[in-house]
Design a protein that fits this description.
With about 130 residues, the protein is an alpha+beta fold. The chain has three helices and five strands. The protein starts with a strand and ends in a 6-residue tail after the last helix. Bound molecules: zinc ion.
């Protein structure tokens, strides 16, 4: 499986997507930069994140900056917020799709134009230029 790597930290990014959404989000566990699959040019150009074929590169111990407890906690908060936004977006898409659909037609007699009105339109003499 292909991995998405943060171009700043050279580590594999975690990814998630909201249920029912085709949009996938990627976040770096170190710098917490977040990208979405909506903007594929980011991955294509390697601006912040890039796709690497195969498994994520294994980091060499001792060469990576160590995150402090506070940073890890903050990253967790950001990840939670990002997931929340993803869920909101999915709900918005769901609502938009529902609103875009025309309401079911009601077969009520009042929806039909009265026969008298149709008759008067038909009886009106056609205007000649
Ligand atoms: Zn990073």
């Amino acid at each position: 499986m292909d991995a998405v790597v943060c171009t700043h930290c050279q580590v594999a990014m975690t990814s998630w997507s909201a249920p029912g959404s085709t949009v996938r989000y990627y976040q770096c566990p170190f710098c917490a930069r977040t990208h979405s699959s909506c903007y594929s040019e980011v991955f294509a150009r390697g601006a912040g994140a890039r796709l690497v074929a195969g498994p994520a590169p294994t980091p060499v111990p001792g060469t990576l900056p160590q995150a402090t407890g506070e940073q890890i906690q903050w990253a967790g908060v950001k990840a939670r917020a990002a997931r929340w936004f993803a869920r909101l977006e999915a709900e918005e898409l769901h609502t938009a799709a529902r609103l875009a659909r025309p309401p079911p037609r009601q077969a009520s007699p009042s929806a039909e134009p009265p026969a008298a009105a149709l008759a008067s339109v038909a009886a009106r003499p056609a205007r000649h230029k």
